[in-house]
Every structure is written in structure tokens, then in C-alpha cells.
Amino acid sequence: DTGVSQNPRHKITKRGQNVTFRCDPISEHNRLYWYRQTLGQGPEFLTYFQNEAQLEKSRLLSDRFSAERPKGSFSTLEIQRTEQGDSAMYLCASSLDRVDYGYTFGSGTRLTVV
Amino acid sequence: GEDVEQSLFLSVREGDSSVINCTYTDSSSTYLYWYKQEPGAGLQLLTYIFSNMDMKQDQRLTVLLNKKDKHLSLRIADTQTGDSAIYFCAVYPYTSGTYKYIFGTGTRLKVLA
Residues A71-84: what's their mean pLDDT? Predict the structure, then answer.
């Protein structure tokens, strides 16, 4: 078990470009979460998958953001037409189907929009 | 909605105890967690407590929960320089239809040698 893996670790993009991040959860975890963390803040919830079904989305997830989890394994988070306000650390976490278990987080993808 | 608050900074001397505090608003928060984040890294789960417990001890960590005041604390005994990090309190408001944890803004712990 190698933990939750996120790629890339860092991404610098020009405003207006599209970016896609990937998350590979722990293999036996059926729950997968995306959070966003800006400097000096705690993680903010973006979306949640149980297996391949996207069961909850935050209003932070505007129509420029889309997330998928095909076949209930890895997940991708795409941001279209990036804006400078999208600069943040994007964190992926996974867990077993037990609310008391807590999340296992990946190391995150740091996005910088210039 | 749920709000979770923490003080921003704490500085202690090596070997002393650290106490990091957290307050929350939703009385239905059933599960409460402490996470640690080191620079450039993701969050690491340290410990958790259920709302039917008042205290939980795990090696150098002691979690205290005051449900009446909606106050959670994390005590780190014999604090070491390796404990320097940001500590996040997170709550799971067990209301129907939500799966998300709500995180506080984090407390930056600095341990002085």
C-alpha cells in the first residue's frame, strides 16, 4: 500500500488554460474526496465520490470544475479556463466506507495560475 | 452551516506540553479529528474522538472533548522540535446527506529548542 498518490505535485499554468489533476486512492478505499486549500486556511470541501458515483458537490465547484472517477478507481479533477483565484493546493483523500475511520490524504497538487 | 475555529499560532519550548484548542458550532458533530500538516505535505491523521467520549489518550497525545461548550483540545506531552507543524481540527457534522469534514483554519505550532 503506497498511500494516496497525486500527480503532478506542482503545476504552473497561464490564465485561461485548462488543467487536469489525477488522484490514485488507496486501492481498497471506496470513498474519495477532493479538497482545496489556500494559504493560511484549512482544506475546503469540493466533492465526494463513493465508488464511481459523485454523491456530493460544494458550491465552490463552479461550472469550470469537473471531477470524475471512472470505474471507481482513480479520479481526475479538471479546471477549465483557469483564473488566478484558482491558485491553491488541491488535496485528494480516500477512506473506507466508515465515517469514523478518517481520511488518508495525498500530498496534494499545488496549482499556480500566472 | 458548521463553523470550526482555532487560534492561529502557538509557541512552546521543547519538552513542555502544548495545548491546541478548537471550537465548533454544530452540536450534531459526531466525530472529531486532529490532523497534522508539515510544510509542502498533505494532512496526516493524528487521532480522533467520538462525541460519546470525553477523553482519549494515544501515547503523547490527549484529546479532550467538552460537548457542552463545543470545545475540543489536543495536548501534546513532551513536545519535540519534530512536532512543529500546522494542526487542524476537523469535525464530521453527522447530518443527513453530507459526507464532508469541516476543517478549522489550523494552528501553527512552533517548538523552540
Answer: 95
The minimum CA-CA distance between B36 and chain A, rounded to whole Å, is 11
A17 Cα to chain B: minimum distance (Å): 24
Say if residues B19 and B71 touch (Cβ distance below 8 Å): no
Specify the pLDDT at position B92: 87
Contact yes or no for B45 and A44 at CB 8 A: no
Cα A33 to chain center, whole Å?
6
- Tell me whether residues A108 and B42 touch, CB distance under 8 A: yes
Window 57-96 of A: residues touching B by CB (8 A cutoff) are 58, 91, 93
**Strand-strand pairing, A10-13 and A109-113:** parallel
Sorting pLDDT into bands at 50, 70 and 90, what band is B44?
very high
Partner residue opposite A41 with nearest CB, options B31, B45, B105: B105
Buried b (16+ CB within 10 A) or exposed e, B48-67: bbebeeeeeeeeeebbbbee
Most distant CA pair in chain A, distance: 40
Is residue A96 within 8 A of residue B94, CB to CB? The reply is: no
What's the pLDDT at B96?
Answer: 56
Could you count the other beta carbons within 10 Å of the beta carbon of residue A54? 16
Which grid coordinates are listed for B18? 502544548
* CA pair distance A61, B102, nearest whole angstrom: 16
Q: Which of the four pLDDT bands, split at 50, 70 and 90, describes residue B36?
A: very high
Asked if residues A8 and A21 have their Cβ atoms less than 8 Å apart, the reply is: yes
